[in-house]
Specification:
globular; alpha+beta; 5-stranded mixed beta sheet; 139 residues
Length: 139
Amino acid sequence: NEYKSYLSSMILSITRGFLHQALRNFYTTPQFGVNVTFLQKGQEIRVKAIRGDTLMETAKDNQLNLPGSCGGMCECSTCHVIPNKATFDTLPPPEEEELDTLDSALGVTDLSRLACQIDITKDIEGGVFAIPDSFADAR
């Protein structure tokens, strides 16, 4: 009985992993995917983002060093990114809460944003986002 339970949980876990990967493969096709570039420690990292995700989720899915300690709740500043000017101009303006949280981020510029507040849409196709080398947690 214990073995059956263990086997069931293993099958469920494998199935979930397979489905997640299958959906990821589907949603990163040209119809749904958006190309974005992260600049981190002198490297350009081009990734395919899924429309509907946030930029923070995209960074985490691609194992980039963007902590996002609060899980995307706009409560810390550990997902601070700096889009280039062309990308910044395609983004909707930040809400007051995001600006307040950015006040405690390290290396803030006029273009600074929180990746948890940037939704992946077709409008940011080709967007470029620099990831700072260090982070401060606003909490």
